[in-house]
Amino acid sequence: MDNCKEIQSRIECFEQGKLSLKNEEAFTNHILGCSDCREEMEIYYIISYGLDDDEENRTIDSHYISFLDSLDFTGLVEQKLKDSKQKCEFISQWSRFNRLRYFFVSGVMALTTLLLIIIRFF
Which domain holds residue 48? Predict the structure, then answer.
């Protein structure tokens, strides 16, 4: 239950995009598997957007507007979690690709240096 309190305290940071990739991934995975935390997230959105009359100051991505217009906060939570999971997976894959690219370039540079030494001294 302590983990749930910690996760629930991060809902606002998640909404504002202030979580690191590792924390966002842990947050998303937890909320997808915990109905209590998901319900807390829905309540957060109900309070933040459902009861807020000041629509001019809202900063929300355009593809979430339909959920807010229909007051479908469950759908909003589901879509945000789905988008977050996709983002985390994309960044992880991109990071792995960059590491592979780095090792490849490092290997080519090492081989080039070795060939230069062989050509120069032999």
Answer: 2-86
Q: Is residue 118 part of a domain?
A: no
pLDDT digits (tens, 9 = 90+) for 89-112: 898 899 889 999 999 999 999 999
Classify residue 17: in a domain, yes or no. yes
User: pTM for this structure?
Assistant: 0.66
Name the CA radius of gyration of the chain, rounded.
23
Instruction: Round to whole Å and give the CA distance between 77 and 60.
Output: 13
Please state, in angstroms and rounded to a whole number, the distance separating the CA atoms of residues 15 and 18: 8
**Chain segment 24-61, per-residue pLDDT in tens:** 888 988 988 888 888 888 888 888 776 665 554 455 66
Instruction: Name residues whose C-beta falls within 8 Å of residue 120's C-beta, 6 or more positions apart in sequence.
Output: none
Per the structure, the count of domains in the chain is 1
Indicate whether 12 belongs to any domain.
yes
Cβ burial 76-109 (10 Å sphere, 16+ → b, else e): bbebbbeebeeebeeeeeeeeeeeeeeeeeeeee
